[in-house]
Amino acid sequence: MAVKRSRAEKKISYDKKLCALLSDYSQILVVNSDNVGSNQLQNIRQGLRGDSVVLMGKNTMMKRSIRVLSQTTGNEAINNLIPLLVGNVGLIFTKGDLKEVREEVAKYKVGAPARVGLVAPVDVVVPPGNTGLDPSQTSFFQVLNIPTKINKGTVEIITPVELIKKGDKVGSSEAALLAKLGIRPFSYGLVAVSVYDNGSVFRPEVLDLTEDDLLGKFAAGVSMVTSMSLAVSYPTLAAAPHMFVNAYKNALSIAVVTEYSFPHAEQVKEFLKDPSKFAVALAPVAAAESAAVANDAAKVEEKEEVEEESDDDMVLNLFD
């Protein structure tokens, strides 16, 4: 027979468990648990068993335990969790990949009916088609301004209708109609709202960033630094190559219009004095490109001849 514990004993046990998890895990998903049932939560716990632990509780208890643990251990980073404990939330402690854990949790969403007073998390659209309801039920559709017609003794919706918009409260008429149509428009589960990783807190959308996204953002940042450095003439590692090239162009411009010269400007000045030398310098490059084009064309012709010969052989074999 299980021994019934007092409320104080339960609080002490919960505090020890939370403190132990905060000490052992450095990655935490803060999840919203609105409209999540106990059976659904149990299935999520079973699915995450191994590398992750789901802990629910009162926000006041969790905040107090975090403050006490921070003061005891001197770990002030965990205090960043306190502002996130707002509303009906829970904590998922994990040592695995945060993105994979979030995706695993999302698999356990279940469909739910539209109950009166609920705030719609998504738009609800009633599709056109036969409803299977008898003509006496047309009053529901008329109240909601849904165009219908009677087809073979049943009510048929003519066009798709946006019944409820995201963020609106579900009314009694909408709830009754959706129940009659057997439509369960909403789905609920644990939804990640924040991520805690070694003291840093960020939005869960960051987990969706790929290496290409990071490289693109890094390249955009380098480009902005380069532009700013060039605009204010402030040397940076990103702008240095452009500054050297611009300085070389300026020095070359001066050397071209004056008697001043330097080794890298001699060849340019020679080309300007005698443009035919420039044509001679480009001749080997043009010849190489022409040879490459001719070589490619010869390969294509040879391939076509081989294909034609194989086709001829096939035709002869058919009539041998």
Automatic annotation (TrEMBL):
Could you state a single Gene Ontology molecular function term? structural constituent of ribosome
Quaternary structure and partners:
P0 forms a pentameric complex by interaction with dimers of P1 and P2.
**Which InterPro entries does this chain map to?**
Ribosomal_protein_uL10, Ribosomal_uL10, Ribosomal_uL10-like_insert, Ribosomal_uL10-like_insert_sf, Ribosomal_uL10-like_sf, uL10_eukaryotes
Supply the alphabetized keyword list: Ribonucleoprotein, Ribosomal protein
Among the GO biological process terms of this entry, one is: cytoplasmic translation
Ranges of Acidic residues composition bias in the record: 303-314
Query: Is Cytoplasm included in the keywords of this UniProt record?
Result: no
Q: Which GO terms describe its cellular component?
A: cytosolic large ribosomal subunit
Q: Where is the Large ribosomal subunit protein uL10-like insertion domain?
A: 114-183
Name-wise, this protein is: 60S acidic ribosomal protein P0
